[in-house]
Amino acid sequence: MNLEAYLKIKKELGSKISLVAVSKGQPKEKILKLYDEGHRDFGENFLQELTDKKTQLPNDIRWHFLGNIQSNKLSKIVEYADIIHSISRYKIYEILVNHLPKISTSILLQLKLGSEKTKSGFSENEILDIVTKHDKKSKIKIKGIMVISENNIDSSKIKLQFQQAQELFEKTKTINKEIEILSMGMSGDYDEAISCNSNMIRLGRIIFGERK
Ligand SMILES: *Cc1c(COP(=O)(O)O)cnc(C)c1O
Hints:
CATH topology: TIM Barrel
Radius of gyration: 16 Å
Bound molecules: pyridoxal-5'-phosphate
CATH superfamily: Alanine racemase
Strand order of the largest sheet: 7-6-5-4-3-2-1-8
């Protein structure tokens, strides 16, 4: 746990950039340490871990779901998370709007950057298509875009890709006024993300240390 790093980064971010403390693989004690500093936004990748932590930790924590989503777990994820960053397939989006439309949920659409085959996410055109067609009266609210940079690329390439994400974010905002979140930047690349106008970074290891 590196409370000093947390406090330093919080100060750098100011009030315009949110920080999600990614607590996957970390014990509840560490979450409570940050909670005592006033931190309320935590990120998890696995449903079981999310449900365990949510039921045992203070109920004013806002839980961000960041992980891969299996369709059979979607309704539970919706129930336990306050916002889902990792909507990355049409199938999942369609279940949300067609089969779970009565539950209020905030979602981000995950943009796939570069050409890595293992990464999930939508193309730019797919995101524009979804945002354009999305029913604004739906209780499923599209609040923005989430991006994960490619592994093993250098800082200048990361920046180019983050700029691409930022441009897409600006376009989607003109289509849907509820779009306000650009979730971009992790422990290894949050400087690049901030320089490309990210307004929500997701930090795990740099705050909590290595996870189990
Ligand atoms: C694990 C994870 C993070 C945090 O990664 P760190 O490198 O530990 O900062 C951020 N975003 C997503 C989507 C993750 O899965």
